[in-house]
CRISPR-associated protein
Amino acid sequence: MKLAYYPFEPFIFADDKITMIETGNHDIYQNLILNFKDLKEDLHFSDNDSNLLDTSKALHWFGDAFIQVDLDKSFQTHLYKKLKENMTESQTKQIFDLAQQLKTSILEATYILDLPLQVEEQTEMSKIFKFSDLHFSSTLVSNSYGIIEAILKTANELNDDKILGFMNVSDYLTDDELVELNELVRSLKLKVLLIKFSEIERREKFNGCRYYYIDSDYVEWK
């Protein structure tokens, strides 16, 4: 997959390594973010056959994941669907039987009230998941690498083939964690984009990544 941003050479995305774009130009940095948030349309994604793609179909933009991303809000509905698809027939039956037992117990408890109360006869699996409070571990809230790792692994489980985009990752991760992240991307075969404002080129920090730098004078360094 490619990203065209005139007058620069296309930026390349593949599942072999992270694509890192840094710039010392404030206008370029802001323009990247606005386009990735689908608020502007002067950047253009294309697939390997040069077919143009809408930004929303090419990129899943998470922004500053440590600050902005709510894992449950982002993925819960999709995970419920995936889990339901992967459950065995016996697992599904067991869960429905237990849910029915719970409903029966609740209904029996209402008999002490002189009221026309009832429970739903049909039970949706998504409601059972929600009732069980199935969610990502709360320990991830204070773990910047853990949040990004969870996003990548979830995208992999959901077969998300979009580019996964983040900003400011190097503000939180150590050099060793960046290396580990790149290895994770390679092992999961995901397309990942990181962007960051930097007044200096930092190619060595992102050794192993596909690195691009645009300086304050709009000069691109590869």
Residues 2-71+145-221 form a domain with the Rossmann fold fold (CATH 3.40.50.11940). The longest helix spans residues 89-109.
